[in-house]
User: Fold these one by one.
Assistant:
Number 1:
Amino acid sequence: MSSDATIIGAGLAGCEAAWQLAIRGFSVTLVDMKPAHRTPAHQLDTAAELVCSNSLRGSALFSAAGLLKAELRQAGSLLLSVADETAVPAGNALAVDRHRFSNEVQRRLLAHPRITWRTERVAQLPPEAPLIVATGPLTDGRFLETLLGDDSAFSYYDAIAPLVAADSIDWTRVYRKDRYEDDLESAAYVNCPFEKDAYYAFVDALLAADKTPLHAFEDPVFFEGCLPVEEMARRGKDTLAHGPLKPVGLVDPRTGKRPFAVAQLRQEDAAQTAFNIVGFQTRLTQKAQQEVFRMIPGLENAVFERHGQVHRNTFIDAPRLLDPQLRLRQHPHIRIAGQLSGVEGYVESMASGLLSGLSLACELRHNTTMPLPPPQTALGGIARHTQQAVPNYQPSNIVWAMIETPQRNKRQIGKRDFRKQCAERAVGLIADWQQSVNQLAPLAPGH
Ligand SMILES: Cc1cc2nc3c(=O)[nH]c(=O)nc-3n(C[C@H](O)[C@H](O)[C@H](O)COP(=O)(O)OP(=O)(O)OC[C@H]3O[C@@H](n4cnc5c(N)ncnc54)[C@H](O)[C@@H]3O)c2cc1C
């Protein structure tokens, strides 16, 4: 018997969409090519894999990323609740143990009686309607052609940071401390302090190192929020010292001095067997990574559990191709969700999955459209972003500029407090919005 909905891609967006439909009483077939086939970036056999960093970014409510997470919690996101359950210490950010996160999402989905998992690398669109396509930024070009015909998809390059084994770090050369925090005991970050000469020697080596070649005809366009470390170094010898290697708030407790620059490591898993080098996404060859990154103080004998990589990241021209309910204008039974629709980031992909699942649930239950989340909310900002008809549509992380806020009286309230106020209001608005969605597509008894 066919399901009420088929979802292609059990990544962050697809899993969230499947859950939202299933708990509202709809049967879902969730199709993924893993573990039989994988994109070049995916390594795990399980669903909802975080391909690079294990961080879902800042938690503070005054940050747009923190607000989006708070709204997702309010809206009943499965993935955010599993992220909270599988969190590892990461200072003011929410970071997860990626194995536990992925395993737990998969376990919850497989345990749901209305979700059927199918392993298949989809080449042709299945005849079943309706459909949510959430195949992610590494979607195969031929599959995209099947989906969009000759219509254009765009791309840029995204890179992955390396992971090093904890027992290969020289713990005598590094120190634990979170930026601006004095509590060293519970610090989530490990700091590798550079002296001035060592820093400049490192930057020189980075600039001279071999890079993985891209196709000759491709002029690489990188996502500004995730630039390869060597690309940042190319912009100026001090760029890294003011960027991912900035030492402010990281006085070395052993010397009482602030190092010239600091490379930070963040724990990757709950057992602390591996650490990722924060901000060190790269397209250096594996050999060059071993040579150059071992110049980082404390990493002289680092064993690389995963090397950095660079990947093409594909997205569609959403404002032209999608309607506000994320349906393809040409084929309204197909919705596109996640990074492929032009949102950027793990949490944004979860949010897009949630919106697509709820939108389809409203359509299936009452043949009606989902009310869009209010523009004063981060979820509303995500929904509006994919509708912004601009000449050069680009993916974006959630930022405050996407969220409608009143004019701030600078003399009366500081920026942080103002944003916190706006955020608190936004979470309340999402509670009301969720109620109206639940009236259209109620939760199934016992879910
Ligand atoms: C190299 C790289 C690094 C990134 N690093 C970060 C980061 O550090 N932080 C961050 O916030 N964001 C990062 N992103 C961006 C983005 O947040 C993630 O890619 C995110 O996983 C996107 O979620 P998604 O659900 O859209 O796609 P994905 O999570 O990629 O899920 C897509 C799923 O579809 C499946 N699939 C694909 N094609 C088919 C097919 N034909 N048939 C069946 N199944 C298929 C795949 O196996 C996969 O499970 C990165 C992206 C890339 C490419």
Number 2:
Amino acid sequence: MILKSLRTYFNNALLGYYPDTEIQSFFNILSEHILKMNRVDISQNLYAVVSGKKYDKFQKAIDRLKNYEPIQYILGDTEFYGLKFNVNPSVLIPRPETEELVSWIIDCHSEPYDLAQDRLRKESEIKILDIGTGSGCIAIALAKNLPNAKVFALDVSGEALKIAKKNAINNEVDIEFIEANVLNFEHEFFFPFGKDVSQRQKGIFDIIVSNPPYVRELEKEAMSANVLDHEPHLALFVKDDDALLFYRKIAELSNGILKPNGSLYFEINESLGSSTKALLEENSYNNVELKMDIFEKDRMIKAIKNE
Ligand SMILES: C[S@@+](CC[C@H](N)C(=O)[O-])C[C@H]1O[C@@H](n2cnc3c(N)ncnc32)[C@H](O)[C@@H]1O
């Protein structure tokens, strides 16, 4: 089939499933991926023949799009903070609001620029723990942008960790992955040398970050089919009557393993900003700071552990 006819066929097949502009955008993204052709290439090669495996890939994509599968799962990868990440249905597709959280952390913790030496001043190593790492997007973007960081990343899902490990290799960063359930995780895990009280007081991590599950069951109704039917519910949902479960558990755990003055960062449910702030204050954190995303929704929070 020639490209021009393929485009018409693609548009007609998805008519009624998505708005016209989105169908165009899917076609362009798939052409880039399958044919290595951008929009200009397409317009200049309308009579090029697409056949065999390449044609089959378009057909498969149409079938999956009709099933409302996210385009990122169909392609098998996505971009986050300028880096490429493999994704499959065992990991949440990284979101732009999470890039804003990463950006906040990098802004607060980048090494200062040494004007006299005309280079970054080499600071001592900092340790970071990412809880609920999924695709590894937060951990890997931080490792890539904070060269003095040693990054650890934890998730309960072995399948998610397989993808995260692959992403760390592809992005050439060294991350220590931990398969564990944070809800019954003991901070002793990080103190292998037993009962050294002074070590415990010093803490381990400079930064702990988490984008934990935070969507309440009652919020399901407002979600689109491509999220609800295809992204992992383990990554998304919490019970209506205990929506801050992960925040409470991580705040308690972090009290045991953050260094004095260490920073705790969360992505949060936009409707639960003030209760998340109150929870952190009740857990003795200082300087609790809520921050909005570009859509002016409460989306992230930072807190400092007591000295
Ligand atoms: C909202 S997703 C965040 C994924 C990724 N960090 C991101 O920002 O795109 C939450 C992650 O927490 C993990 N998770 C859910 N319950 C967990 C638990 N009890 N212990 C550890 N991780 C858990 C899920 O597997 C999922 O990868």
